Amino acid sequence: MTSLPLPGTEQAWAALGGDPALLGRVETSGPAGLLPARLPVMELARSAVAVCALAAAELTARRTGGPVPCVRVDDGAVATAFVSERHLRIGGRAPTAFAPLSRFWRTADGWVRTHANYPHHRARLLGALGLSADTADNLAVAAVTASFAGRQAAEIERTVYAAGGLAVAAGTPGTWAADPRGLALSGVPLVERERIDAAPVRRTPALAGAPLRPAAGIRVLDLTRVIAGPVATRTLALLGADVLRIDGPRFPESPDAHCDTGFGKRSASLDLASRTGRAAFDELLTGADVVVAGYRPGALERFGLTPQALTARRPGLVIGRLSAWGHGPWAPRRGFDSLVQVATGIAVAEAAPGAPDGPPGALPAQALDHGTGYLLAAAVLRALTEQHDEGGSRLVTLSLARTAGWLVDELPATSGGVADGSYDPAKWLTETGGPLGLLRHALPPVAFDGSPADWSRPPGILGADAAGWLTA
To answer: CA 158, CA 246: separation in Å to the nearest integer?
Structure first.
């Protein structure tokens, strides 16, 4: 065991504005050689979890009046959590990771990747080819293969996007860095931090008892989907927050994804486009301490829900915000971890060696999603600490594309050691029963002395909870 944090942890903690003296509270251990890749994926994973746990420990100290607890990062727990969706079993059933139309396709000049896990994205992809949404998967795969094989990747990207679908041409890290999309992120911090106003300090009651849940009494409006945002809010729920996830009625979340990321939360359905739904949301906002938003830029703004508008209605609010692309010409676009890997050159960097004509590769985990999720939770926790000390409404902003830049360009190139066969993920898995059945799931990797070992409740049925807070 070592008490010397690795360079990635130092980088992430500095990006969060943390006191460097607290890095000595971090201890790391665990088996070697996990999440093997050409890029330093394990370094990213370890660092993101370490700073999240350290931010939680720091807030714990503020609320107890005691010293900052020691943070303990176990690489086995981290690696297991970063592929939590692969370990998930729902009544013994393994969820589907990628739909048949979510994959790489050869084009006339290279490769393109599509994402069609959600029915509306599948329908739009097929619509771009003149096919109906009810086309059988085997026929759809054959049609896409034939169509894309004779076309340029960039043209496919434009055509599918124009139809509302998702397709990204594979590029290299160099082409991304020189492209307006990559240039727009040059100089952008890993974690963008902003104090919006001078709202007064909002003190929460002192913590007492065990386990220590530093977010106890904090009310979080969860406006996120898929993996990154829900990982962040799942972590806040672990730490005691009353997390209420809000989904609209038009595009429901994948039930399987919710089984993985819904732990510790409640879930309600509201239509912000309706008068009653908006009134219910506004009432929730008056009691919220944190809003976490994971929709693409512009999606919430069309309802007037800008950070400035939110904090004007609820001074002292902490807002956590993430998107796929961050800044630049693609900022308003939808995106997923797999597509960001393709655009930023990660997929090409991870291609199988010795197969120059083969498809691009992928990271051993959806590390951009999970890593950004833990960084976002850390940023919210640090903002709560700063609000506790100095007041002010706070805004923190992250993106998958900026996390990709951290992985490719900034983290030290480490081998992660050689796997010695000691890793058994079963050590960091457990089973929990609940409304969705018996779930086998990964245990939380965020740990410090006195922290909770598991969530307080299993995922419930999506949208089945009342749109209200647990406490007055």
So the answer is: 32
Mean pLDDT of 298-303: 84
- How many residues are listed for the chain in this entry? 472
CA distances from 48 to 246, 350, 371, 418 (A): 26, 21, 6, 22
Cβ atoms within 10 Å of 23's Cβ, excluding its own:
19
Q: What predicted TM-score, i.e. pTM, was given to this entire model?
A: 0.95
Provide the pairing of β-strand 242-247 with 219-223: parallel
Q: Given a cut of 80, is residue 275 above it in pLDDT?
A: yes
Alpha-carbon distance of 178 to 422, in angstroms, equals 42
Which residues partner with 432 through β-bridges? Answer: 439
Contacts of 159 (CB under 8 A, 6+ apart): 128
> What is the pLDDT at residue 217?
93
Q: Compute the distance between CA of residue 342 and CA of residue 36 in angstroms, rounded to an integer.
A: 19
| CB neighbour list of residue 357: distance below 8 Å, 6 or more residues apart | none
- Chain centre distance of CA 18: 21
Tell me, what's the pLDDT at 417? 63
Q: DSSP per residue over 36-91, as a string?
A: --SS-HHHHHHHHHHHHHHHHHHHHHHHHSSPPPPEEEEHHHHHHHHTHHHH-EET
Give the 3-state secondary structure of residue 127. helix
R_g of the chain, CA atoms, integer Å: 22
Query: What is the DSSP track for 263-302?
Result: TTEEEEE--TTSHHHHHHHHHHHTT-SEEEE-SPTTTTGG
Spatial separation of the C-alpha atoms in residues 103 and 359, rounded to whole Å: 10
> What would the mean pLDDT of 212-233 be, rounded to a whole number?
95
What's the burial of 183, exposed, middle or buried (CB within 10 Å: 0-12/13-18/19+)? middle
% helix, strand, coil for the chain, step of 5: 40, 15, 45
Q: Is the pLDDT of residue 418 over 70?
A: no
Q: Find how far residue 172's CA is from the centre of its chain.
A: 23
Give the CB-side neighbour count of residue 48, counting CA atoms within 13 A: 34
Give residue 164's region: left, alpha or beta (phi > 0; psi -120 to 50). Answer: left
Q: Position of tokens 């998702």?
A: 166
Output the CA angle 459-294-284, nearest 5 degrees. Answer: 70
> What is the per-residue DSSP string for 314-330?
STT-EEEEEESS-SSTT
Determine whether 368 is exposed, middle or buried from the number of CB atoms within 10 Å of its CB (0-12, 13-18, 19+): buried
Confidence (pLDDT) at 254? 86
The secondary structure element, H or E, covering residue 244 is strand 242-247
